């Protein structure tokens, strides 16, 4: 598995399960993502699960579907709460497989 990517079970990311990893200078985390069925438009599309030090799967974040205000196109964001980590998901470099999504980190916006 490529670091900082999620491999989903299908191109329909919104309903697919996936596995991946996130590596930064501060943490290294293998993750599992599971879709969530909800009628709430503000709910995440997936829960993000990591492993505790004793090996138990623990919910640690989520994936949300967003819409670009300029283009109207959909995209997904990922958050890992305990590490204050935020990222967008996007097509992995040099890949035609849309089920393989790169985790593209971004930091919090600085106050103006």
Question: What tags apply to this protein structure?
Answer:
mainly beta, DUF736, DUF736 domain-containing protein
Give your account of this protein's structure.
- This protein is mostly beta strands and 112 residues long.
- It has one domain (5-105).
- The protein has no helices and 8 strands.
- It has strands at residues 5-8, 18-23, 28-35, 46-51, 57-67, 74-80, 85-91, 100-106.
- It has an 8-stranded antiparallel beta barrel.
- The chain is globular and about 40 Å long.
- 19% of the residues are buried.
- The mean pLDDT is 91.
- This is DUF736 domain-containing protein.
- InterPro entries: DUF736.
- It holds the Pfam family DUF736.
Structural class: mainly beta
Q: How many whole angstroms does the radius of gyration measure?
A: 14 Å
Give a quick account of the main beta sheet: strands, pairing sense, barrel closure.
8 strands, antiparallel, barrel
Strand content: over 45%
Question: Which descriptor suits the 3D outline?
Answer: globular
Q: Extract low-pLDDT stretches.
A: none
Sequence of strands across the biggest β-sheet? 1-2-3-4-5-6-7-8
Number of helices: 0
SSE topology string: EEEEEEEE
Query: Any idea how many domains?
Result: 1
- In round numbers, the mean pLDDT is 91
The number of distinct β-strands equals: 8
Distance between the termini: 39 Å
Q: What is the share of helical residues?
A: under 10%
Pfam families: DUF736
Protein name: DUF736 domain-containing protein
InterPro entries: DUF736 (IPR007948)
């Amino acid at each position: 598995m490529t670091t900082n990517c999620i491999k989903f079970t299908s191109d329909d990311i919104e309903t697919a399960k996936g596995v991946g990893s996130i590596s930064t200078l501060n943490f290294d985390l293998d993750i599992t993502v599971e879709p969530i069925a909800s009628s709430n438009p503000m709910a995440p599309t997936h829960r993000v699960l990591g492993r505790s030090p004793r090996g138990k799967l623990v919910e640690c974040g989520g994936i949300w579907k967003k819409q670009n205000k300029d283009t109207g196109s959909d995209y997904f964001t990922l958050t890992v709460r305990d590490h204050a980590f935020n990222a967008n998901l996007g097509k992995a470099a040099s890949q035609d497989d849309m089920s393989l999504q790169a985790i593209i980190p971004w930091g919090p916006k600085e106050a103006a």
